[in-house]
Amino acid sequence: MIQGQNGFRTDLISTITTGFFVFFLCTSVTSATEICPKSNFTVAFLHDPPYVKSSSPINSTKKNGLLYDFVQSGLNHCFHQYNCDTKAIEWRAVFSEDRLSSVILDAKADVAIPITPSLSSSLTEELTNSRNHDVTLVTVVKSPGLAMVIDYHACKMKIEKLTTSTILSAWPVCAVMLLLAGISGISIWALLAAINGSAAEREARHQGAHVTTYEMASKMFDSLQADEVDGVMLDRFKAYYYLDQLKNDHFRVALQVDESLEYGVALVDKGFPELTANNGCLAEYLVNSNHRLTRMMKHYISPVKPLGSATDTVGVLSINSTANQHLLIASVCIYVLFLVCGLCWEFLYRRNHFNLFKSTPRDQTTSSLPLITEQLAEVQEALSKLTAQVQKIQESLQAVSSTDKQIRNSQIDSTTSEMSILESETAT
Q1: So where does this one cross the membrane (predicted)?
Q2: Which residue, among 45, 42, 29, has the nearest Cα to 84 in the 3D structure?
């Protein structure tokens, strides 16, 4: 009797336990069915590498962008948590920031990516003015700042040409400087930047650049490759991504500006608050899964080669400069030309000078002997005449000297007689 009662109690307990389990299971299934979205869960995305690098829904096994993959991982996590079917997720591409903004404000999507800094500021203003509390903006990625990418080879050639033309156009000044003190140095820096985003534009204008705006980063690099601009300034992560994709060894990061840029996700609460509300599953996942985002980042952000002043730049007056090499070659050629001209002139001058004083050959002396004899006779006759004239001059000089002596003697005699007369008179 006692054994029968124990068996009855055991069966009753097992029946009650089974009933509670079935009730809990049914309640969970019913609750999950009520929580899961009744229609497609829409995710709107805009092509913006490296955050979203797809313009149409792509196979989930591929790398579709940093934010794309991160949001997809969060959706899979939350859908599995609430036992919802991930096939209800619909990825919808948009093709402009304005269209993405209207999709968010009109609640046509549950999630929207990427929310760029410029789009975030405009959405914040719109949501504040309209007092819309159904949209939550979650910051996911913080870029360290801006990067200016240049084609250093093209910039170097332009600076060399500008320097050379400046020197050639001002050669009198340079000549005076060389004569007085020499050239101390020339420094030329030019910047033309193409940017995308208000923060980059402010910084570029602050640096004194002429700014041209582009809607897509890919067009910026197309213009840089076509030599339409001298540099592009954009988000540092985007710059690293495009430099890795383009594989152009002439592109270098010439300037880095530390100004934090935030990229995030817009969550629109339109019927699935457990997932898209301010404190929903997806918002918590995006905020608390930074380690997963860091692991994903290595697939999209690669180290790049910076601009090295010692290896990638050449001084405007350096011998390694192509323009200066051409100028040096031209100077050497001019010097050699002048040297050759001088040697030729010296050779011709010495030759003509030697011909003027060249001695007469012996065979020519024999043929001109009568002429020489005649010339000698003329010289002898001239010498004879000169000798006769000299003798006449000597005779005239002798006559003059004798006359002078006679005059002197007569004067002496007269003087003597006068003195004797005076003496006699004195005596008397």
Answers
A1: 12-32, 166-192, 327-349
A2: 29
Q: What is residue 318's predicted lDDT score, i.e. its pLDDT?
A: 60
3 state SS of 216: coil
pTM of structure? 0.57
Q: How does DSSP classify residue 48?
A: B
CA distance readout (Å), 189 to 32, 159, 209 = 65, 8, 11
Weakest mean pLDDT among 25-39, 259-273, 279-293, 307-321: 25-39
141: CB partners within 8 A, 6+ apart: 51, 66, 67, 237, 262, 263, 264, 293
CA dist., res. 75 & res. 400, Å (int):
149
In this structure, which amino acid lies at residue 52?
Answer: V
Whether the predicted pLDDT of 289 surpasses 60: yes
Helix (H, G, I), strand (E, B) or coil at 265: strand
How far is residue 159's CA from residue 230's CA, in Å, rounded to a whole number?
A: 11
Helices (H), 357-368: 362-367
CA distance 124 to 135: 10
Which of the residue ranges 23-37, 94-108, 225-239, 368-382 would you say has the lowest mean pLDDT?
Answer: 23-37
DSSP per-residue string spanning 110-154: SEEEEE-HHHHHHHHHHHHHHT--SEEEEEEEEE--EEEEEEHHH
Nearest-angstrom CA–CA distance, 187 and 283: 53
pLDDT band at 379; cut points 50, 70, 90: confident
CA within 13 Å, CB half, 195? 22
Average pLDDT of the chain?
75
pLDDT at 4: 47
